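Late entry, written up from scratch paper. The run itself happened at the end of the previous shift, but nothing got recorded in the book at the time, so transcribing now.
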Amino acid sequence: MTRRCFFAAAGLAVAAPTVTGAGEPSANNADLPRAALLSDGEAKTYLLEFRTGQEVMKGLLAFARKHKLVAGHLTGLGGIEDVVLGYFDPRKNTYLRTHEKGQFEVLSMIGNLALSNDEPFFHVHVALGLRDSSARGGHLFEATVRPTVELVLNTYPRPVRRKIDPETGLPLLDP
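Output as recorded:
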């Protein structure tokens, strides 16, 4: 079973597809955010800016691959439209996905970066504000930026890995 099929069977997005050309989609370089290095020690801190039309999760993956990142955490805010959120249903052992259309304020975006099968894997949650001041949130699978998403990504040199939990089938942190 390919990695893509495994994650699809588990109800997960393939946040870290394998090498381009091996039958897996690659992250589009058009989704790469503008970046500034804020701290250049052993642990690096980047300011990432996404613009209208870019896809956040694809851009994060492309950035992590380009910079050979192995661990980190992120926080952010901004505005998005057209989002796919997930909620893990432990009874069904799968993510229930909701495709939301319209404009949303990103009230909070938080996540981590680890390696899954030696590829970068982002686990990101988001809280979204709606026009009527209500909120929605959950696991972030996809989000199209409008007008901007601003993130701070703190990275670390020591790899953090994920391994498949036999009970849930999820790629959980393995510290």
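The domain at 3-18+27-173 is CATH 3.30.1330.80 (60s Ribosomal Protein L30; Chain: A;).
(Scratch paper discarded after transcription.)
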